């Protein structure tokens, strides 16, 4: 049985419990994705909790590759009050990883939907490709913004106080770990949210018209509000 997932920039075929085939359209290339995996290999070697799927075969001409199927749960799918605690436990490792990718100048798409947890605490990074953005602390920004998006989608499932406490322990934890000023990270968050707004407003997705309307009428205004929260430091960090 082949399950097909049609995504913005790619089609993913879940072939069986052994492997997955991913084919890109015009925007990204398999070549870039493999380069990203190579950078990740270097980074994850220093971490016990992070892993990447094995690549079995790649074909640059037809822009596809075959890689290991990760039998686990995507971090965004398990997001509820009890599972969110896992993020607390993994915080030190995550922050160290974010810091190292910033030091190397690497940018990966570390949105929680690209992180699959296999067994408790083992995180596989899939789909690391992303557009380069002119910010230094890309990983923490993408991850914590991803958590906000997730919270908004699960607003009835997650206790806001609990969510904000964990979110803040990542965001503020990183600020302290790297000895940054809150305003420096907030500026980068603003730049990133502007990009997200741009993507959601102007980019053509191969999704439905309905989806496009939701994106413009609901997500974009919410993102604008979130942007101002960071701009005026309304979180009081
Ligand atoms: N190696 C894999 N193992 C298990 N599931 C996968 C794997 N690769 C992709 N998927 C599933 O397919 C979805 C889309 O794949 P992804 O690589 O994130 O594509 P996109 O670039 O379009 O975001 C993922 O969110 C995940 O659910
Ligand atoms: Mg993805």
Q: Key features?
A:
alpha+beta, Phosphorylase Kinase, domain 1, 2 domains, 4-stranded mixed beta sheet, 7 helices, binds adenosine-5'-diphosphate, binds magnesium ion
Written overview of the protein:
With 237 residues, the chain is α+β, with helices and mostly antiparallel strands. It has two domains: 3-68, Phosphorylase Kinase, domain 1 (2-Layer Sandwich), CATH 3.30.200; 84-231, no CATH class. Helix content is 47%, strand content 16%. It has helices spanning 30-44, 85-89, 91-104, 138-153, 160-177, 182-202, 209-231, and strands at residues 3-6, 10-14, 19-24, 50-51, 55-59, 64-68, 73-74, 115-118, 122-125. The strands form two sheets. The chain has a five-stranded antiparallel β-sheet, with no helix packed on it. A hairpin with a 3-residue loop joins strand 8 (115-118) and strand 9. The longest helix has 23 residues, at 209-231. It is globular, with a radius of gyration of 18 Å. The mean pLDDT is 91. Bound molecules: adenosine-5'-diphosphate and magnesium ion. Adenosine-5'-diphosphate binds at residues 5, 7-10, 12, 20, 22, 53, 67-70, 74, 113-114, 126-127.
Secondary structure elements and pairings:
Elements: E1 3-6, E2 10-14, E3 19-24, H1 30-44, E4 50-51, E5 55-59, E6 64-68, E7 73-74, H2 85-89, H3 91-104, E8 115-118, E9 122-125, H4 138-153, H5 160-177, H6 182-202, H7 209-231
Parallel strand pairs: 4-9
Antiparallel strand pairs: 1-2, 2-3, 3-6, 5-6, 7-8, 8-9
Helix pairs in contact: 3-5, 4-5, 4-6, 6-7
Bound molecules: adenosine-5'-diphosphate and magnesium ion.
